[in-house]
Amino acid sequence: MKKVLFIALLGLILKSCTNTSEEKLPILGEREPIEKTVDGKVVIDTLYQSIPAFSYFNQDSILISDKDFDNKIYVSDFFFTSCNTICPIMHRNMLNVYNKYKGDSKVKFLSHTIDIKYDLPSRLKKYATKLGLEGNQWEFVHGSRDSIFNIAAKSYLVAAYEDNTDPQGLVHQGWFILVDTKKRIRGAYDGTKEDQVKQLMLDMDILLKEEFGDAK
Amino acid sequence: MRNSLIYTVLLALGIGVSVQSCQDENSLDYKRYYVNGKRIYEKSCQSCHGADGKGLGTLYPPLTDTTYLKLNKNQLSCIIRNGQQGEIKINNITYDEIMPGNETLADIDIAQVIVYITNSFGNKQGFYDTEAVTSDLKTCK
Q: Which domain holds residue A91?
């Protein structure tokens, strides 16, 4: 009896050890096998869905692009400044995440406005300032209608669209999307739920470790 | 003599009991308003003003300025029903955004949410009833 317990405990300890040291986040989205030639031999590799090139104006009216996110992990979402339903909750939560990684050059935040007409960079700047933000670790971006709605649906897998039956005319989901240094999606979290936002922060630590090792 | 004594005692008892039950009803009302008000707050106000009433940055003002809520008690019904915009100072910080109105909230809902916010987040103003809300709403600008 004692022996069984001992083995069970040992198993538990071993399991928890391997769990912490080798935990990796899944890679989300579509994937397809591709043939690649390595050292003259044909091998099968996997091509993962990734965020395509983009360029938008940020809150300082500067044109930024996917290059500004190279070698960084980032959290992305869709919102608009006059949204008074889920956006205040999302950005109250995002602010907590931001504060945890504030000043960490390996981490960025990217909020796309879906109010193409009114949320011009000057308005985004005012919004960011009122949230208490300085600098550009957290980018608020404005783009053309097509580019924003397409990248939402096809790349970040977030539903966002214009809808005449909605009181505010705009509908979007509150997902926070975690993207790795290779622009692949590694997690999706409901930005209106505190427990999921906590999970996001835990997952960001795991991802940082995978991407950059233990060196802080 | 003996009868009148009994009557006096009964009268005194009666008054005592009715005062007692009135107070009970008040505090029962208070509790009911507070609990319902909390539910309305969570549904209609919390996204902006926060579960802790602290607001968000300078986008949404906190409800922790007890002096403001006291001085503007008679305005709260109007703010909640019709919304609020323009510069206001809360805890000495200027806010200038738009709060949308809540046309679908009935007077009693407004009374309940007022009881909740004016007795939470550091505020302690006691009961506020539906009649007070109805008469406040006549004064809205």
A: 55-212
**Residue A49 Ramachandran class (φ > 0 left, ψ -120 to 50 alpha, else beta):** beta
Q: Express each pLDDT in A79-104 by its tens digit.
A: 999 998 899 999 999 999 999 999 99
Residue of chain A with shortest Cα separation from B57: A131
Residue B18: strand, helix, or coil: helix
Structural domains for chain B? 2-137 (1.10.760.10)
ipTM: 0.77
What are all long-range contacts of A28-33, with beta carbons under 8 Å and residues at least 24 apart? Answer: A28/A157, A28/A184, A28/A185, A28/A186, A28/A187, A28/A188, A29/A157, A29/A184, A29/A185
- Is A85's Cβ below 8 Å from some Cβ in B? yes
Interchain CB contact of A89 with B (< 8 Å): yes
Residues of A in contact with B50 (CB under 8 A): 92
Q: Nearest CA of chain A to the CA of B63: how many Å? A: 16
CB distance from A136 to chain B under 8 Å?
Answer: no
Q: Kindly state whether A169 is in contact with chain B, defined as any CB-CB distance less than 8 angstroms.
A: no
The answer as to whether A19 is a domain residue is no
- The domain tally of chain A equals 1
Residue A125 resides in a domain? yes
Q: What is the token pair recorded at A3?
A: 């022996």
